[in-house]
Amino acid sequence: MKNIQIFTIIFIINLCMSLKTIIAQISLKVDYVTIEGLEYFKSHNFSSNNPNPALKSINSTASIALKNDSPYSVMNTTVTPPNGNKREYISYAPYLWPSCKGIKNVTDPETQCPYKPRDGLYNPDVRNLSDPVDSRNMVRDVLSLSIFYQLHGDENFAEKAVQLLDTWFVNEETSMLPEVIYGQIKRGPGEWKGREEGILDTRLYVYIPVAVRILEKSRAWNDNIDKGIRNWISDFSNWLMNSNLGKQAFKRSNNHATFYVAQLATYLEFSGRIDEARNLIRKFSETTFQNMILKSGEQPMESKRTKPYHYQCFNLEALTYIALLSQKINGTNLWEIRTKDGATIQNAVDYLIPLKNQDAGQEGEAILLPALYKARDYYGDRSGKYANTISKFLKTTNGASEWWTIYSPKSLRDGNVKNSNGKSYNYDNYDSYSENSATSLFGTSLYAMLSFGLGVFFVFLY
After folding, report:
1. Sorted alphabetically, which keywords does the UniProt record give (predicted)?
2. Which residues pair with residue 96 across a beta bridge?
3. Tens digits of per-residue pLDDT, 378-396?
């Protein structure tokens, strides 16, 4: 009996860890989602009997979100923002650390020691704040619930997504104010102030407009939610354009400016301010973008960081998003714009293909995949360079975390592309994700099941 009790405890722990790992695998990237792309996927690749790993992950995440009764809200924070209003979003700068050398009798480093940068070294205590976590999880759940509703038509999932949007953006008792004045604040002696880097925290909000367009067809949608969301996005757009932090973010020479433009252009387009969105992208292409890519394809403002491969892929994430959005609104063709060194986005993608990701961590070269797909889609692939690289990188992923494969706007329409050797790769067949991986969505649950079997074996053994 004692052995059975011990085994039960071990099994429950393993099962909980497996479920946690499934969700932890999901790291949303900024990508351009369209209802048309989702409908294409539904008509050409949708299989209820054998869904691909990414769709399994979306379905699983949506199902868990449906049953989650713990609301995401800025009011959950245990750290009150400096102005005393919990509706203000607050986060700490992740790469700033207290420097207490030479300071005597330190009892509270947060207020006594100056904070200094250690680029690439993540300060773990930033996770003590709930706003960044709740914000990311809210978007993840809204997106998965909306996609599930679009593909399956289950009104329960739409209703849950609408509830999440109401809590975060509309309800005056729980919603976030449409500004980020305390984003990535610098702690230390004196007044804690937000920085323009904090605008990066809301980059995933680019998924909210497409979620709205999906959910407004549901029975759960109503005039109050519609007006509240649209007012929030409009107000946030105005804050991004007119605040000092927003203006500083646009003037940055790296990914902070790129993601700022990606966000603001999205919100402006959603609000019907198409000319303003076009002008923003045009101005970006004529200014900041001009210094972003060298003739070789290297992105100097990202490659000088301590994680050069990661940050160059990260900036491409936003650049390719802007290029796709600009195509939709008949704006500047960012795919064809050349920097002052004569380089395009294609050069930046090509530069990274032969490189090894030497950054610390477990990302690998597969983080380049979304940009590879988009470069192939726009520039073509007569030599098979992208096909070869995509095939190689796909084998290193578990598939479950690659949500973007579900709604990549063009990749899903060009399933079969031949490489230089004449071999055909079908990118619509995402079973290839699981060729070398036992972790395609429920791989970790398989681990729990194996633990169960081993537990039973040892129970009977003893």
Report:
1. Lyase, Membrane, Signal, Transmembrane, Transmembrane helix
2. 117
3. 999 999 999 999 888 888 8
